[in-house]
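ok posting inputs for the magnesium ion job
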Amino acid sequence: MPEGLLGQLEVFFTWQNALLWLRATGTTVAMAVVGCGVGFVLANLLVLVRTWPSRWLLPLRVLIVLYVEVFRRIPFLVLIFLVLFTTRALGLHMPLFAVACVTVTVTATAFIAEIVRAGYESVHRNQWESAAVMNFGRLRTVALVVLPQAWTVIVPPAFSYFVMFIKETSLASQVGVYELMQAGKYFNNVGVSPFLAFGTCLAIYFALSYPLTRVGWRIERRLAHRFRRTSPAEPLAAPPVVGP
Amino acid sequence: MAQIELRGVSARYPSGGQVLDGVSLVVDKGEVVSIIGPSGSGKSTLLRVLVGLLPPSAGEVWLDGSRLDYADRKALTAARARLAIVFQQFNLFQNMTALDNVTVTPVKIRREPKASARARGEALLRRVGLGDKLGAYPDELSGGQQQRVALARALALGPEILLLDEVTSALDPEMVNEVLDAIRDLANEGITMLIVSHEMAFVREVSDRVVMMADGAVVETGPPGQIFDAPRTERCREFVSKILRH
Ligand SMILES: Nc1ncnc2c1ncn2[C@@H]1O[C@H](COP(=O)(O)OP(=O)(O)OP(=O)(O)O)[C@@H](O)[C@H]1O
Ligand SMILES: [Mg+2]
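and the output
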């Protein structure tokens, strides 16, 4: 076996193959970045609507809660098949990469929405009240007062979720997206030793995750240091009552 | 003319029982009225009703002869634009420096020019003795200093009506006198003030009228001389004698 491996190295390490791996790595990262990036924006919107104190939005709030609770509990693999076949059934022939991105976004939004909500709730109710009394309005209260304080609570778990999700996207290979895992499978299929093929996968996943984890620790420490001023007294349990 | 009028206002917190029980109260323009009463009697709650954080469950609030409709966002916003409050817990924005706490509403909400708002904010903070703390965050300030930032923040709004909840509770005696002076100045400028305080010397000194509350209701109202020296109700006599003895 070792000799076989050694013999393969020469064939395996070519510029052409390196480009294939690079492309696969790019796809893996892109899925996580697009999904979590869009998911982060959408999650903030969901939380904003969910905590908006208006009777008219009640049906929407119910939908959001349902969405968050359901989609956090569906395995990524199940979801990606669902998205694939739903879009096909609707006659949308999206590229596989787009299907994967939609799927990542759908789960990431649900997950990050919970992280963002916990962040909002870590901000003391009196902060909302001060802002309300000075006529801030909901959006400016969130932008000027709540998010800057919730940031320390939101960013570290959101970032580790993102790093975790890089690994999760390997499941997209099941529908044929050419990402890292799929590249491993491809090389294995064309005769490259599985140790080499999947070993390269492993190395690249690690090379992606480890520095990012370190960056995450950095961010966490930095935030903890710079904004010690997160939650003054006891955090609040329910969305705040602000005016009628 | 009555600037603030409460007619039989009752209020309850969503999580608890009745806290205010039919409070009626009239405050004239430029008047300084103090509210005293035992802890938990509903003084802070009364102020919360006035700033629209807690809509009354019964009764009416009138401002300058028009009834405040708590369901009407616009009316509430208009009312809040004329009010300022210093909360018992100060409620400073934790993510902003002292100066930003004072200038954020003028600049970001009222769209005043930044330079003039800043200048005014600095002047106000100097006036309350915090000229050297402009860049400090609330968690870097003592309780008394935070309280003074909160006062400066309220004054920066140029309110017609100022609500002060225990505004001297965290201050040393020297500072109490300065705040007292500031309040007198404000009264002379014609600002209507509703002051909740446990400090009887302060109340006697600064108030035109004193309102004694107990169990969510007004027990007695009168000039300081009456409330402190010749209370008419047993409940008030009892409270005042207890407090003045200590
Ligand atoms: N957010 C709240 N939710 C439920 N109950 C509350 C809340 N805030 C106050 N209460 C209750 O309302 C009652 C009146 O409280 P309030 O703060 O108005 O008293 P207070 O007169 O200001 O007292 P103190 O002098 O101690 O500040 C108390 O019994 C208190 O337990
Ligand atoms: Mg109080």
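notes: Residues 9 and 135 of chain B are 41 Å apart (CA to CA). Chain B is about 40% helix and 25% strand.
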